[in-house]
Amino acid sequence: MRKHRVGKAMPVTLASFLAVVGAVLLWPASLMAESVPRQIAVPPPPMGWSSWNAFSNTVDSKVTMEQAKAMASNGMAKAGYRYINIDEGWWLGERDAEGNFIVDGKAWPALAAGERVGDMGNIVRYIHGLGLKAGIYTDAGTDGCGTVGPDLGPSYPNEGSENHYEQDFLQFAMWGFDYVKVDWCGGDKEKLDPAVQYAEIARAIARAEAITGHRLYFSICNWGNNSPWTWAPGVGGVAADIWRTGGDIVAPIVANTKNADRKAEIKEVFREFDQAVHPEAQHTGFYNDPDMMVVGMPGLTEEQNRVHMSLWAVLGGPLLVGADLTRLSEEALATLKNPEVLAIDQDALGLQATKVAAPGTGLEVWSKRLWAGGSRAVLLLNRTAAPATIPVRWSELGLQDSSPAKVRDVWAKKDLGALDSYSATVPAQDMVLLFVNGSEGPHAKYEMTRVADEHGAAVVRNQPVTFKGVGTHFTVAPIAISYMNPDKTPRLAELRVNGRIATRIAFPPTGGSSGTVWIESLLDREGAKNALEFSVESDPGPVIESISLQ
Ligand code: GLA
After folding, report:
1. Residue tagged active-site, from 119, 248, 401, 487
2. C-alpha 66 – ligand 1 centre gap (Å)
3. Between helices 121-129 and 61-73, what is the axis angle to 10°?
4. Residue-range domain boundaries for the chain
5. Closest CA to 342 of 433, 426, 440, 427
6. Of the candidates 351, 349, 363, the residue with the CA atom closest to the CA atom of residue 392
7. pLDDT tens for residues 263-307?
8. In this predicted structure, what is the pLDDT of residue 3?
9. Which of 241, 278, 449, 451 is 20 to 30 A from 421 via CA?
10. Does the annotation count 183 as an active-site position?
11. Catalytic-role residue among 87, 139, 168, 183
């Protein structure tokens, strides 16, 4: 989605000219039960494996090949897992006189005839050969985490990409990597500004993509410092795909090392879940990243693995498994592959669940809007130390209370019938995950009217145009945006709600007719008018026709 560049010269048609000089007022309109126009699918969050949690800096070619083989053969690839991500430890900070990476040839040997030792392209070819995708890792600073907190040591400096951004990201793309995670240990040590550094990195990635024609999925890892959800989807005019929202979920648990006895903890899983809740930033292919998972690692019970998986699924979070894939229990593997849970995570609306009710202290109802009209993933979550009954009414989900809704217990794989409401007894520190399908509640639709933008009547092409609107909602509001984009790549716009920090929205192609993408907005003016402003970034921008609030 970052392929779309801002400010390209385009032929001026009357329609595109009007779209550019236009701004939009939203007229309060009647409530209507009609469904919104055709929904457009957005890119789902990534699924894969990452080396850090189970291998720390012992990752090498052998480990990577074994994990890739396991993913290809244990059903995970078939279930949708794709990325094999090599985390810290693959490179120990050495460069040649031209600044190129020097990679240890013993750790990363030749894997086929004609290959050079120490060429990371070897492992990429191996991973691709299994039908999978390959990820790599660096740091935004001069040093990486190898000096700040070497896990299994020894300490190694200069393991970051600062002053080598263009060179390093081009090298990653030339090696054939599909994904890059950029950490912040060195950036933090130097007290750099993450929004500035990651913007520069985004530009280096865009350049590498332009030169090689190879897409590099961009994962920011600065642990939620400086609220990346407010800037990561739009840094430097080129967006990151995912951004971490918290610290590490676990310190690596590496078999046969001094760290072998560490344990994953469910309380850390809950901490990451809570820190990842920024629904207003997660839409149209941009994702909050609650960290790599610990499902299947020592410390969690099988039921806690299911709780963890459910939390990530309703978040719509990246599913990056941290466990050693060659040692998963049958039950943990089944948890990771559960097709209904994966479908919730990967839902094509790309939204995050919001907490819609809290019927008691530590008792919560979370709801994630799904692609099929009237459907929601609902998590009844009991954080307390005792079993408790958690009720849910359909209106809390934006559905009509007056119509029965079909309810399915996802983990039990059981249809519970068409019901007027539901309530379950949930064990202590546990959850029930439901799939609910009912009748959508009414939407308030606001048509757009074009007016001159705030820069005055003489708007020049390529300048941002502001669309202004008003609504009357409070709290997190699901909003469907109806638009047109006849291009083959997404068009971009920034949305500013009530003058607050903007979020970038990617509008995928719609072909010749209108389509709809969904977002969640924090509308904080109860009883007053909420102003929604869309600034068109690409030229021509998406033609925004109307929004529907629920
Ligand atoms: C940081 C990141 C982790 C991992 C380690 C590697 O702590 O948050 O995910 O990449 O660095 O050292």
Report:
1. 248
2. 22
3. 10
4. 14-33+442-549, 47-345, 354-437
5. 433
6. 363
7. 999 999 999 999 999 999 999 999 999 999 999 999 999 999 999
8. 38
9. 278
10. yes
11. 183
What is the whole-number distance in angstroms between the Cα of residue 248 and the centre of ligand 1? Answer: 7
Give the sign of the dihedral formed by CA 523, CA 525, CA 527, CA 533. negative
Q: Kindly give the parts of the chain with pLDDT less than 50.
A: 1-34, 452, 454-463
Two tokens, residue 528: 């007053």
pLDDT 10s digits, 200-209: 999 999 999 9
Alpha carbon nearest to ligand 1 atom 12, residue: 145
CA distance 410 to 433: 6
- Give yes or no for a contact between 48 and 84, defined as CB atoms under 8 angstroms apart: yes
Q: Whose CA is nearest to atom 11 of ligand 1?
A: 145
Q: What gap in Å lies between CA 483 and CA 36, rounded to an integer?
A: 11
Show the ligand 1 pocket: residues with CB < 6 angstroms.
52, 87-88, 145, 183, 221, 223, 248
- The preferred substitution site among 55, 91, 145 for testing ligand 1, maximizing ligand atoms within 8 Å of CB, is 145
Q: Tell me if residue 193 is catalytic.
A: no
CATH superfamily of 354-437: Golgi alpha-mannosidase II (2.60.40.1180)
Ligand 1 centroid to Cα of residue 221, in Å, is 8
Distance in Å, CA 116 to ligand 1 centroid: 29
Question: pLDDT (tens digit, 9 = 90+) per residue, 106-139?
Answer: 999 999 999 999 999 999 999 999 999 999 999 9
Long-range contact pairs involving 33-38 (C-beta distance under 8 Å, separation at least 24): 33/440, 33/441, 33/442, 33/443, 34/443, 35/373, 35/440, 36/443, 36/480, 36/482, 36/516, 36/548, 37/482, 37/514, 37/515, 37/516, 38/510, 38/513, 38/514, 38/515, 38/516
Fold classification of 14-33+442-549 is: Jelly Rolls (2.60.120)
- The pLDDT assigned to 477 comes to 85
CATH of domain 47-345: 3.20.20.70
Residue with CA at minimum distance from ligand 1 atom 8:
248
